[in-house]
Structures are given as structure tokens and as C-alpha cells.
Amino acid sequence: MQAKRVTFGGGIVPYLLLAPQLAITIIFFLWPAGQALYTSLFAEDAFGLSRQFVGLANFVALFEDPSYRSSFAITVVFSASVAAISLGLGLLFALAADKVGRKAMVYQTLLIWPYAVAPAVAAILWWFMFDPSVGVVARGLRAIGIYWNHHLNGTDALIMVILAASWKQVSYNFLFFLAGLQAIPRTLVEAAALDGAGPWLRFRKIVWPLLAPTTFFLLVVNIVYAFFDTFGIIHATTGGGPGQSTTILVYKVFKDGFESLNLGASAAQSVVLLVIVIGLTALQFRHIERKVHY
Amino acid sequence: MVESGRKLTFAAHAALILGVAAMVLPVWLAFVASTHPGTDFLTGRIGFLPGAALIANYKEALFTGSSVSGFPPVGPMLWNSFVMAMAIAIGKIAISLLSAFAICYFRFPFRVTAFWLIFITLMLPVEVRILPTFEVVANLGMLNSYSGLAIPLIASATATFLFRQVFMTIPDELTEAARIDGAGPLRFFWSILMPLSRTNIAALFVILFIYGWNQYLWPLLVTTDQSYYTIVMGIQRLAAAAAEADPVWHLVMTTTILAMLPPVVVVIAMQRLFVKGLVETEK
Question: Looking at the keywords, is Manganese present (chain A) (predicted)?
């Protein structure tokens, strides 16, 4: 990693400059992460009086636990749906905005603000619209014979949280797709049009391939969002229920640790999440690499 | 020019208008709900048009709270959210400016190590280390305090990388000139680097303010005292009461509108800075 060609001597100065950042990193990030790793290898008795080294037994127990496996499956369905819906709609709106040309800025203003809404707040909005007794949408659905009840029906609850999570994320994807589209040279598209390529063919052969890096980057960002930033969506509304139907992994690690006080299992879950984040960050690395030049 | 394609342009407008409607609808319904008295919810009279209780509801939510479910007023929660968001935004920017300065403008042992230590924080979101981080904060006596709400969140690899990028584009001739004129490192930082990074700082501030305001899990963990609740996490307590069929839906929706208003206003009012910040930080 390069530094500037012209530098200051400094002695102790650079260490002082770095001290606040490094202190917070070590105290609140590295030390707790180390603790999670360490605890995940031990079993504690019910009173927390003694602990015993058990190796990977916590992990084995975790993956043999049907409730953890179902939570894993729910998380995959949830994340894939959120990524698909919010990327699909983001791309659709970006293509449309790119098409309308100069008026795109007006639409941009009208479409980007949901980014500022907290996931938990977005969830409450959808929770209310679909509420079986007071929600307008639930009432409308009932009129056409669909009895929506996310309090009792697990599928309804999962659909509700997926919609809420996607709603908030569309604006982010829209913004990046629009920037990506506007970076595509007009001349390329015009040349293809002169050669007689219609809009669909131009999209498939020119726009989509040139947009691929943006799409890839957004895919990773959306998966990270769906995995980790959606805790508030679940906690503020369904509380993981009904039953286990909306217990995604980040919610489960919280619930097992804070409510059931199952420390070994919670730590093992933390470590599994950690591995997932490292994997996703490594994927994202290609993107960061361009910016950081080591 | 590409063919004008009237039909396609029309379809594009139609899709965008539908999209805007889908974005606005949930918020409009929440706003409508926040203007109806609590009793309207029991009779199912809430539709698409506002009611007459706008002022009464916002007054009740801000200053009285709900006596039925023992929920405190949200006025102080708005203040707590504001303090937390400002502390996180300013804190992250300050310590990241300093560390980016150290990494760019000095050569010293362990420079690359420091860089990697900062880099690792990208891979350690709160969700991954919930319990042990809570324990650390509890042991330091920082539960139920502003410092506990803000300080553990202000380490930032993203901001450090961003400022490093900015500094790398600043010509070395400026540094040389400053040194010849006898400026020390801190003078150079304050009088040259800071003014040159002004727009980047502003753009990042917008993003980080929203990030701080919207924190949920962290305030939930470190606050048990109602006087330190932030509004985004406070809603959950109220929504839980509404789900138990207490007649507080009007307060839930009023609080929801209040919780999203500040960050949404920031995004709309500072749209250009917001877009710049978002694109620059793209993790």
C-alpha cells in the first residue's frame, strides 16, 4: 500500500493520530470477536459456573439442530427474494428513468428517499398496511377472497417482511443502476440502433453486459443487507414468528443469546455469521481493490 | 439519435409513476392513520383520507405518550436519536480523517498493520459479535449513556478509505510548499487538507447521519432506561402494545412518521451531497 511521496517525519505523531480509531477497533471489534470465537469452543453449565472445552461440538450441535437448519433455509429464501425483487425493480426504474432523459432527475428525487427510512420503520409501515383488523391492504385482499393474517400464517408473515425489506432497498439499487446506465456511451447504443437493433436486442447485447460489474456489486451489497441489516424488520414486527417462520439468522443469534441465554450456541452462531461476512467481503473485494491499491 | 419510440417513452413514464406510487403509498397510509383518533381503528373507518386528529395525535405522541400501554413521550427520543446520529457522524469523520492522514502522510513501522486492523472492521458488523460487545460495554459502565450509544459504532474502515482516496489525489507540490513555508504536519492537516476535503466531508456526513439515526440493534442492547430510548427502537415497544389490541395504532403511526421525517428531509434537501456520498462510500 503506497503512501505519499512527500511525507512528514513525525516520530510519535502518526501513532497518536491513529490511536482513537485503533483503540475503538480493538476494544469494540477485535476483542469481542475474539471472545465469540473462544466461547464458541466451550460449553457452559446452566448456572454459568464452570466451562469446559468441547472443541467443535457446539458447531456440530448447531448444524444438527432442526431449528437452526430451518432458520438457515428461511434466511436463504428471504435474502434471495429480497435481492431479486429489489434488484429487479431497481433496474426496471433505472431503465425507465434513463429512457425519459432530462426528466429523470425529478423521478430520482421521488424514488430515492426510502433509502433514508430505517428498516424497522419500513417494516412497521408494511405491518400496518397488512394488519388483518386495521390494514387497508388486508381489507382489500379480503374483498377478493384472500384472508391475509401475518399473525397466524407463517407464509403471509414471510411475504410481508420480504416486501418491507425490498421496498426500502429499491432506491439504492435504482441509484446505482441509473449511474451505471448513464456511464454507457451513447454512441454505442446509437450505432446499434443504426444497424437495426431494437430496444430489447440493444439491452441484451450492449446494456446488460456493460452493466455487469454494477449488477455484481449490487448483488453482493443486497445479500449483505438482507443477511445483516434486516434485524430491525423482524424484531419490530413478527418477532421471528409465527412459530419459526420469520426467524432469520441474525434474529436467532440475538434470541438465543439474549433471551434463551444459550451462550455457547449463540457464540457458534456468531462465528458462522462471521464466516458468511468474510466470504461476502472477499467477493466484494474485487470492487474495493480498485479503490484501495495495495 | 435512437428512434424516438413514443410507446416506449410512454411505458417508461407509466412504470416510473407506478414505482413512485408504490414508494409513497405505505407512507401516505401511515400519515392518514396518524391523523385519525384511536377509536377510528376499532371501527375500521381508516381509509385513504386524513382524519381530524392530526394536531391532537402529534401532541399526544410528542409530549404525553400512551397512558394505556405506559409508553413514554417520543419528544425526548427524537432528541436522543439526534444526539446519537450527530455523535456517530462527527465521531466517524473525525477519527477517520486522522487515521487516513497518518496512513498517507507518514512512514512508520506497523503502518500496513494498522491499515489492516482498520480494514477488518468491515467484516465485523454488530450482528456478528452481539453478546461479547455488549459485555465489553457493560463492563466499561457505558450502558444507558450517550457514549455507550455512539462510541462503539464510530470506528470506520469505509470513511478511512474514502479520505485516503481524497488525500491521494492532493498534489505533493502542495505538501512541499507547505513544508518549505515551515508548516508542521498538524498545521498542514488543518489549513490545507481539511479545506480541500470539505465537500467529501459534507457528503459523508449526510450518509453517516442517516446511518446513525437508523441504528436499531445497538440502542436496543445498550438502553434499558426509557430516558435513553431512541425513536427508531422505541417504536417497537409501542407496536408490540398495538399488536396486543391496545388502541394505540394512531400513536404507532404518528411515531413512525416522526421517526422517518428527519432522515428523509435530509436526503431530499441535500440530494446532491447524498448521492455523492452514497456513490463514494459504496463500501
Answer: no
Pairwise CB contact (< 8 Å): A96 & B129: no
Indicate yes or no: CB of A291 within 8 angstroms of CB of B161.
yes
* Chain B (120-149) residues lying within 8 Å, Cβ to Cβ, of chain A: 120-125, 127-133, 135-137
pLDDT tens digits, B205-238: 999 999 999 999 999 989 888 888 899 988 888 8
At B80 the pLDDT is 93
Q: List phi, psi (to 5°) of B156.
A: -150, 110
Q: CA B54 to CA B52: how far, in whole Å?
A: 6
To probe the interface with B, which of A16, A26, A27, A28 has the most B CB atoms within 10 Å?
Answer: A28
Average pLDDT over residues B3-12: 79
pLDDT of residue B85: 95
Nearest to B102 among A17, A120, A126 (CB): A17
Q: Which residues of chain A have pLDDT under 70?
A: 1-2, 45-49, 286-294
Note the pLDDT of residue A117: 94
DSSP A70: H
What is the rounded distance in angstroms from the CA atom of residue B41 to the CA atom of residue B268? Answer: 32
B 204-263 residues with CB < 8 A to A: 210, 213-214, 216-217, 220-221, 232-233, 235-236, 239, 243, 249, 252-253, 256, 259-260, 263
| All structural domains of chain A with their residue ranges | 65-292
Which CATH code, of 1.10.3720.10, 3.40.640.10, 2.40.10.10, 2.40.160.60, is assigned to A65-292? 1.10.3720.10
> SS3 for B50?
coil
- Name the residue facing B132 among A14, A36, A237 (closest C-beta): A36
- What pLDDT is recorded for position B247? 66
The sign of the dihedral angle between the CA atoms of B178, B182, B186, B191 is negative
Nearest 10 degrees: Cα torsion B36, B41, B42, B44: 110
| For residue B152, cis peptide bond before it (omega within 30 degrees of 0) | no
Fold of B68-283: MetI-like fold (1.10.3720)
pTM, two decimals, is 0.90
Which residue in A has a C-alpha nearest to residue B151's C-alpha? A24
Express each pLDDT in A75-99 by its tens digit.
999 999 999 999 999 999 999 998 8
Rounded percentage of chain B residues whose pLDDT exceeds 90: 35
- Output the pLDDT for position B9: 86
Q: What CA–CA distance (Å, rounded) separates A125 from A168?
A: 11
CA gap A95, A169 in Å, rounded: 17
CA atoms within 13 A on the CB side of B258: 32
Q: List all residues 6 or more positions away from A253 whose beta carbon is below 8 Å from its beta carbon.
A: A266, A269, A270, A273, B127, B130
Find the CB nearest A113 among B155, B235, B268. Answer: B268
Q: What is the DSSP string of A4-55?
A: -SS-B--TTHHHHHHHHHHHHHIIIIIHHHHHHHHHTTEEE-TTSS-EEE-T
